[in-house]
Amino acid sequence: MTELRTERLILRPGRPDDAPCFALGVSDFAVARWLTPLPFPFTLAMASDWLRQAPGDDPGRAMFIVDLPGRGLIGCVALGSELGFWIARPHWGRGYVTEAARAVIGWHFANSDAGAIASSAHHDNRASLRVKAKLGFRETGRDMRFSHALQHNVQHVLTSLDRSDWAALESKQCA
């Protein structure tokens, strides 16, 4: 997967020159507090190291979200063992995450035989849970995960999106 485009966004693999925006975006505590596995603070050196290790053609890796007309990196959506995403605070509330995640999910189901996609979010991350609900994810359980930014365990809502639910949702939107 080299690049996906939506009406307002470009989704592409990370590049070394993304490191400053990547580090800045996830170093904001308002963003980092929701990113359970990421170290905090997340430094420029960490971002550079991660981008050097990230294989650009692996669809399970992160796809960086670039606001059209290519003004710069504003967030990320990834589909590894779980769907995850973040968006830089100045871009909150504009629907970018929903738009980007919808493109990645559509690409994933069209190019794999996966039956479902898992995801999770802090129990009190209402914005993330709303995005997942819009995309058709359903709650499947709860667990505890350690948050590096908060330095304690946080209850997570586990969710899943079945291929059949996605197809029904997409056909409704096209009708």
Describe it.
β7 (138-147) and β8 form a beta hairpin. This protein is 34% helix and 31% strand. α1 crosses α3. The model has no long low-confidence stretch (mean pLDDT 91). It is of the alpha+beta class. A five-stranded antiparallel β-sheet has the order 1-2-3-4-5, with helices on both faces. The protein is built from six helices and eight strands; from the N terminus they run ββαααβββαβαββα. It has a single domain, classed as Gcn5-related N-acetyltransferase (GNAT) (Aminopeptidase, 3-Layer(aba) Sandwich), CATH 3.40.630. It comes from Devosia salina. Residues 9-164 form the N-acetyltransferase domain. This is GNAT family N-acetyltransferase. InterPro entries: Acyl_CoA_acyltransferase, GNAT_dom, N-acetyltransferase.
What key attributes describe this structure?
single chain; 175 residues; alpha+beta; Aminopeptidase; five-stranded antiparallel β-sheet; three-stranded antiparallel β-sheet; 6 helices; globular
